[in-house]
Amino acid sequence: MTVTYYGQSCVLFDFQGSQVLLDPFIRYNTLAKHVDIETLHPDYIFLSHAHQDHVADMSAIQKNSGATVAAIVETASWVRKQGVPEDKVIEYNFGGTLHLPFGNVKMVYALHTSSTPEGDYAGVPVGYVFFVGNLKIYFAGDTALTMEMKLLEDLDLDWAFLPIGGHYTMDVDDAIKAAKFVNCTRVVGIHYDTFPPIAIDKKEALRKFRENGLILHLPTVGEALSL
């Protein structure tokens, strides 16, 4: 099983043949200008919230791939308004778990805001925990550090995808605390470097994680990691 990073918070999981894309924002990201979204054919698209830097390419990729889109209820309503067929939209809410062919996906808390690219109400942001075989992966989405993360500490997570850019989300120092809250030593950084306010010092970030006994991965755009 692998994950490919496409910049900002966009990642594509390959769960032994099932392709699961999260928060597609590629064409409008200058760091990902070499990525052709026509090559992406996910089976599922999960949205953490509806801000444009997480949904900008949802419609185009869904139409090209026929993917099923999963999101919290209000964001799912916006997805339908983009022309995604009803049978290709899954709406659910906090505490809910989807039982899908590749595994289970639980919706968990995130502390942030959410609105559609048009500025309309889109519910609230979420995170997800993926249970695929023996693998357990936490995708935090856009979030500040929150005590609710400690509710995940007994899951024995294998990987945590955490925002580290600061300004709009957690920064590096808070992400270190978050990794300890969820009891996960392997972290993939997301939501950094795309815009000037969220630029980070990568060497400093790697050092801080290492000094705290944590492993931070900062893949380049288009790079795949084995899970």
Automatic annotation (TrEMBL):
It comes from the Bacteria. The keyword Ligase does not apply. Pfam families: Lactamase_B_3 (PF13483). Keywords: Hydrolase. The keyword Hydrolase applies. GO terms for molecular function: hydrolase activity. Residues 7-191 form the Metallo-beta-lactamase domain. This is Metal-dependent hydrolase. InterPro entries: Metallo-B-lactamas (IPR001279), RibonucZ/Hydroxyglut_hydro (IPR036866), UPF0173_UPF0282_UlaG_hydrolase (IPR050114).
